[in-house]
């Protein structure tokens, strides 16, 4: 076993460098396996079940309802998930939640054998899985800093994002293959077993490798009153944390504008304005995930910089510049460009934008994780998830309304310039000087 006792300083703290590195590697491997199997299973289930609903009902409303059912729990229950994850043993909760996911899918399989795979059964299973996923993701996010020592926090967050992006790319592909060549019942069996195997792998993760010995857990049992008190405590803490006070407003507008730009404005610009095919649009969407996967791997291999402010600034400016370039083909004097040229430009810009997005997102995650006390991490992450998720529907609605007034390409220019100005403002901010 490698047991070096060399010290490194991060944010002025002397920390052990590569203490019990074999344990860290073991944690990283098990974390990656467990998260991949669990997340990939979730994406495959969501995509394959959506295809099944469309094939059986032929109804866009039924399809939209399944998406809504899968989205609402994250908006509503994230603060509850954060409160629970700070009060209980994270390892037990994560294992139980993955076990419950497997149980729900296998229960749906059993009902399918007994009564046939009915749409109401699917809706109930989708709702339960969305609730479980909300608690699972919040708890796992809060547990990440405990799985490795501080100097490897960027690496494990890179792995986490690589798994997210890889699952987004592979999930629909594997779901399409499974849906085309395997019966729905066999698919449900494989999916349910995969969750159970993920739960088993998580049993062997050391969730206290980098845990504080004097951590303070919230006292009292879970109740509506205690959840309300937790929310008040989190907001009171945020007011005292200068870094979070600066990052949260940016993150809120960041998620708001990204959702509006990529979910509504971009597809409208590509398909309606530029008259590109749905296949070309699908490939461009895939390029975003490929770019994030590539960025996560590259950033994870690089040594961590003690100061992240410059990378954050470069990343935000890069995102802003990418959005401005993506709006250019909409200009009237460039409308004569060959579709294949524009398609190639968008492929390059999608990968570039995704790279800069992760260059911003990973340092933000690490700065946030380091600036929050361990005993509050779950609750703060839960509140942040609720805030970011709740603004997404608003971004979609406002983007749709605004496009009736302002050309889609011009909205890209506005968003791009906003990012560039925000980057310069954050770089000069006193709260960010130490980072």
From TrEMBL:
Topology within the bilayer: Multi-pass membrane protein
Molecular function terms, GO-annotated: transmembrane transporter activity
Species: Mobilitalea sibirica
Spans through the membrane: 28-54, 60-81, 93-115, 121-148, 169-187, 247-269, 281-300, 312-331, 343-364, 376-399, 405-427
Domain of life assignment: Bacteria
Identification of the protein by name: MFS transporter
Keyword Transmembrane: yes
Main location: membrane
Species classification: Bacteria, Bacillati, Bacillota, Clostridia, Lachnospirales
């Amino acid at each position: 076993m490698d047991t070096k006792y060399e010290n490194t300083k991060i944010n002025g703290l002397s920390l052990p460098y590569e203490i019990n590195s074999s344990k860290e590697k073991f944690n990283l491997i098990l974390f990656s396996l467990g998260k991949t199997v669990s997340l990939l299973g979730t994406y495959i289930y969501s995509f394959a079940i959506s295809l099944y609903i469309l094939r059986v009902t032929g109804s866009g409303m039924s399809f939209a309802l399944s998406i809504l059912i899968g989205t609402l729990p994250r908006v509503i229950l994230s603060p509850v998930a954060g409160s629970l994850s700070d009060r209980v043993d994270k390892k037990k909760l994560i294992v139980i939640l993955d076990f419950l996911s497997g149980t729900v899918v296998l229960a749906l399989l059993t009902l399918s054998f007994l009564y046939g795979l009915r749409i109401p059964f699917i809706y109930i299973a989708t709702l339960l899985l969305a609730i479980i996923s909300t608690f699972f993701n919040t708890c796992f996010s809060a547990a990440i800093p405990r799985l490795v020592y501080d100097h490897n926090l960027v690496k494990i967050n890179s792995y986490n994002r690589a798994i997210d992006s890889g699952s987004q790319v592979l999930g629909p592909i594997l779901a399409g293959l499974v849906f085309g060549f395997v019966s729905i019942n066999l698919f449900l069996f494989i999916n349910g077993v995969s969750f159970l195997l993920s739960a088993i792998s998580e049993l062997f993760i050391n969730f206290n490798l980098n845990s504080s010995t004097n951590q303070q857990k919230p006292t009292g049992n879970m109740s509506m009153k205690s959840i309300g008190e937790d929310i008040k405590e989190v907001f009171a803490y945020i007011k005292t944390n200068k870094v979070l006070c600066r990052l949260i407003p940016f993150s809120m507008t960041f998620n708001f504008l990204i959702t509006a730009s990529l979910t509504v404005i971009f597809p409208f610009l590509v398909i309606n304005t530029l008259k590109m095919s749905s296949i070309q649009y699908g490939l461009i969407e895939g390029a975003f995930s490929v770019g994030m996967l590539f960025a996560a791997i590259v950033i994870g291999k690089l040594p961590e910089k003690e100061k992240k402010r410059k990378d954050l600034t470069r990343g935000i400016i890069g995102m802003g510049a990418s959005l401005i370039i993506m709006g250019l083909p909409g200009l009237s004097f460039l409308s004569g460009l060959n579709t294949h040229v524009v398609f190639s430009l968008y492929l390059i810009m999608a990968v570039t934008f995704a790279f800069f997005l992760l260059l911003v997102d990973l340092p933000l995650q690490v700065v946030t994780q380091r600036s929050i006390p361990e005993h509050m991490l779950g609750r703060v992450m839960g509140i942040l998830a609720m805030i970011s998720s709740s603004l997404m529907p608003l971004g979609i609605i406002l983007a749709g309304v605004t496009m009736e007034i302002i050309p889609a390409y011009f909205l890209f220019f506005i968003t791009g310039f906003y990012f560039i100005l925000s980057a310069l403002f954050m770089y000069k901010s006193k709260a960010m000087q130490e980072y």
